[in-house]
């Protein structure tokens, strides 16, 4: 028998021929694909839809969520704002959909004969007989999953239980997404700065392991940035901006910049209207486009509210540079000048946050800003390795694609740490930046040496779910 700290023997794991599945569940999207490939084949929203039809509850997953504004359709997320699963039943369903819809299909499988759980001669096989007849979606596929660095033990155990018992995976591993992003950048040690949807996080990684005392996270992720853009829209001039998703528009006419939209709205009688959460969900798509096309991070070296090295206030400089145009679904369009910097300045300078009494996001504190959480992360690790981490800063997460983000981060870090060399590595390739933890998982799970790391079904049965704490450090 193995102790939980030992690797499974070759008889327990012999699955070099089968390709593992890598599942990287984020707050906004869930990424899944085959280990060894460059990008995840499956990319779905983590949000799901719920409505009732003829008295029965119906659920919608994947991109279908966007399609039809059904009566009463509401949108939900099984993951909480802190990045930890809140609704396990639904998390299981969404994740399962992410691989069954595009990768595995719902196929029958027999874990006794797939080479991953070979039963040593002479041992009774009766305990697995029940499993044999059931159709479990991952019966043929080892599964590597990612998680946030602050995922609690209970949640980690629950995850391996779902993978082993519900999906029937023959081998499982749970990896911190910071470690995976470091691997994707070709580094075993790095300071990983992840700007996602629900959170920003900083994870110091040393020799492929997270340094737990240094892990920091704060709520100023992409959804917070969206809330700042909404705050800007409310106070926008020449007129406040309302985002009207396409499903509420039946006809529109082109208008000049800054002119009120000329639009015919679609209306729904109350009993046919989707829930407000559906509209918010679709508005988020427009906000995401706005971030991609308009929003810009003030380059520094001083903050936006300060005066630049030439004695001119930065805001004035920003005003004199050409703005960026954006057209909303209802045809309203305008050029955004200095405001395009203001909506993200609070990631660096909490005082710059645009106030909105109605927002669900509490006003940020300086301790939650990117430079401050990096400082806190470095203060949490050994002094000797700080210079090495600073010269290996890995920037990841789709919100880090904000135009100018890495330049500003570089400025801030060089000012905070004038001594050591600061080096930021951030792939220019968009999909590498968006999928880096998935890509790291794809690399890791296909390494020849990795097979010793998998937790086999047999070990799980022997030691219980807590084996995940011992093996997946
Ligand atoms: N080009 C872009 N520029 C700025 N923000 C972007 C861009 N593309 C996507 N985003 C934003 O990035 C966020 C999604 O990031 P990401 O996919 O890294 O999050 P996640 O992994 O699903 O969530 P989390 O890391 O919080 O669990 C969304 O808020 C989206 O609006
Ligand atoms: Mg993420």
TrEMBL record:
It comes from the Eukaryota. Residues 109-150 are annotated as: Disordered. InterPro entries: Actin, ATPase_NBD. Residues 120-132 have a biased composition (Acidic residues). Pfam families: Actin. Belongs to the actin family. This is Actin family.
């Amino acid at each position: 028998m193995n102790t939980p700290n030992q690797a499974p023997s070759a008889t327990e794991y012999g699955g070099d021929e089968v390709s593992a599945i890598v599942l990287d569940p984020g707050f906004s999207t869930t990424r899944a694909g085959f280990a060894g490939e460059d990008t995840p084949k499956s990319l779905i929203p983590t949000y799901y839809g719920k409505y009732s039809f003829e008295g029965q509850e119906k659920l919608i997953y994947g991109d279908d969520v966007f399609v039809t504004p059904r009566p009463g359709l509401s949108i939900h997320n099984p993951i909480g704002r802190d990045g930890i699963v809140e609704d396990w039943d639904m998390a299981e369903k969404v994740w399962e959909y992410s691989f069954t819809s595009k990768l595995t299909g719902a196929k029958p499988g027999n874990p006794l004969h797939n080479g991953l759980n070979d039963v040593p001669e002479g041992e009774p096989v009766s305990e697995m007989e029940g499993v044999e007849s059931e159709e479990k979606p991952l019966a043929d596929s080892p599964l590597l999953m990612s998680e946030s660095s602050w995922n609690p033990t209970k949640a980690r155990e629950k995850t391996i239980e779902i993978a082993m018992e519900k999906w029937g995976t023959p081998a499982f591993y749970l990896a911190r997404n910071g470690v995976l992003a470091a691997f994707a950048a070709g580094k075993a040690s790095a300071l990983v700065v992840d700007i996602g949807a629900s959170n920003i996080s900083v994870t110091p990684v040393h020799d492929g392991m997270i340094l737990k005392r240094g892990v920091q996270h704060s709520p100023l992720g992409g959804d917070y940035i969206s809330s700042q853009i909404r705050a800007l829209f409310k106070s926008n001039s020449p007129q406040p901006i309302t985002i009207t998703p396409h499903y509420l528009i039946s006809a529109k006419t082109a208008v000049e910049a800054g002119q009120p939209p000329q639009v015919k709205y679609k209306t729904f009688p109350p009993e046919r209207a989707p829930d407000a959460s559906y509209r918010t969900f679709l508005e988020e798509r427009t906000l995401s486009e706005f971030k991609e096309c308009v929003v810009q991070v003030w380059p520094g070296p001083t903050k936006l509210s300060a005066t630049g090295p030439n004695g001119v206030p930065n805001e004035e400089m920003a005003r004199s540079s050409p703005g960026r145009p954006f057209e909303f679904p209802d045809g309203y369009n305008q050029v955004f000048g200095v405001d395009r910097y203001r909506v993200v300045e609070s990631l660096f300078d909490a005082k710059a946050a645009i106030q909105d009494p109605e927002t669900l996001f509490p006003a940020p504190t300086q301790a939650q800003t990117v430079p401050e959480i990096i400082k806190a992360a470095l203060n949490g690790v050994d002094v000797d390795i700080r210079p090495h981490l600073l010269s290996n800063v890995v920037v990841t997460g789709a919100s880090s694609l904000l135009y100018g983000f890495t330049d500003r981060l570089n400025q801030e870090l060089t000012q905070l740490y004038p001594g050591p060399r600061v080096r930021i590595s951030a792939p220019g390739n968009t999909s590498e930046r968006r999928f880096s933890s998935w890509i790291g998982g794809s690399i890791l799970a296909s390494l020849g040496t990795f097979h010793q790391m998998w937790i086999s079904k047999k070990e799980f049965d022997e030691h219980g779910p807590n084996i995940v704490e011992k093996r997946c450090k």
